[in-house]
Design a protein that fits this description.
Helix content: 40-55%
CATH architecture: Alpha-Beta Barrel
CATH class: Alpha Beta
Structural class: alpha/beta
InterPro entries: BHMT-like, HCY_dom, HCY_dom_sf, Hcy_S-methyltransferase
Strand order of the largest sheet: 1-10-7-6-5-4-3-2
Cofactor: Zn(2+)
Keywords: Metal-binding, Methyltransferase, Transferase, Zinc
Radius of gyration: 18 Å
Organism: Bacillus mojavensis
Protein name: Homocysteine S-methyltransferase
CATH superfamily: Homocysteine-binding-like domain
Oligomer: single chain
Number of helices: 13
Distance between the termini: 19 Å
């Protein structure tokens, strides 16, 4: 069963969660590390569970796991064995599922909303490189090599029981093709594909977003297509490009409005001038069916979205 379509058959919008890293930093974590939030899986997993719980309480219908930068290669570089790496990768799913189940066990939390799902983050090859490549896509490796990189983590996440895979911040269509090819090895698994974008028409490596939507539209295991980790001002245009070229649900979860410099690993500029939930309402009206937040967004932003989403008529 396609878990995304299953929810959308009843609810007009799936509310995603927001940034994990920002919240972990607010709880005192130091993420200046090549493993980023995956480092906290090793050190303070209870804080990850608390962030998931905060987003469920804010109204999120989906938790994205802390496996974005959790890879066998990345953990091996820290001296962890393959078994230890697998345990941590799979822990990212179990932590999110435990937070969800504990939240859902309280009857007052079930009003006018679906039982939340767990989306296992499959970050791009560039996230493992930790050099900003997920905003360029110029990896210099083949589709076959990308498939070999993604296979073991995808299998670990699927075996851990994730409801869906979140293939996110993908900077090039070649990487999406590699992952779709792998999905055929797991015929009961669905994944969403969200690309990082450089402007209102193109993903990060310059490929038209329309071409990405058209290609993914042909593949049944692609449950949704969209954009994440991208400046707010490009989202409406990108939704229009995607909508013209796919019948699949459109997913968007951009950054807060600040600009990320991958070289210095710093954020500059100001956040969105209008309330985040107000921008999200426009994206919904433009055709997005799954909406949340990426870098620098917070539970308060997700609460704004859920505030109006719960007033929408269900089918």
């Amino acid at each position: 069963m396609n878990p995304i379509q299953h929810l959308l058959d009843t609810y007009p919008l799936i509310v995603l969660d927001g940034a994990m890293a920002t919240e972990l930093e607010r709880k005192g974590c130091d993420l200046n590390d090549s493993l980023w939030s995956a480092k906290i899986l090793m050190e303070r997993p209870e804080l990850i569970k608390q962030v998931h719980a905060d987003y469920f309480a804010a109204g999120a219908d989906c938790a994205i796991t802390t496996s974005y930068q959790s890879t066998f290669e990345g953990f091996a570089a820290r001296g962890l064995s393959e078994a230890e790496a697998r345990r941590l990768i799979q822990m990212s799913v179990s932590i999110a599922a435990e937070a969800r189940d504990e939240f859902w066990a309280q009857k007052e939390n079930r009003l006018n909303r679906p039982k939340p799902i767990v989306a296992a983050s499959v970050g791009p090859y560039g996230a493992y490189l930790a050099d900003g490549s997920e905003y360029r896509g110029n990896y210099g490796i083949s589709e076959d090599e990308l498939a070999e990189f993604h296979r073991p983590r995808m299998k670990a996440l699927i075996d851990a029981g994730a409801d869906v895979l979140a293939c996110e911040t993908i900077p090039c269509l070649t990487e999406a093709k590699a992952i779709v090819r792998l999905l055929k090895e797991f015929p009961d698994t669905y994944a969403w594909f969200s690309f990082s974008a450089k402007d209102g028409l193109h993903i990060s490596d310059g490929t038209p977003a329309a071409d990405c939507a058209s290609w993914l539209d042909q593949h049944s295991q692609a449950a949704a297509v969209g954009i994440n980790c991208t400046p707010l001002q490009h989202i409406s245009s990108l939704i229009a490009e995607l909508k013209k070229n796919t019948s699949k649900p459109i997913i968007v979860y951009p950054n807060s409005g600040e600009q990320y410099d991958p070289d210095t690993k710093t954020w500059n500029g100001a956040a969105c001038g209008e309330p985040y939930g107000q921008s999200a309402r426009l994206w919904f009206e433009n055709g997005a069916k799954l909406i949340g937040g990426c870098c620098r967004t917070k539970p308060e932003d997700i609460k704004e979205i859920a505030g109006w989403a719960r007033t929408l008529k269900t089918t």
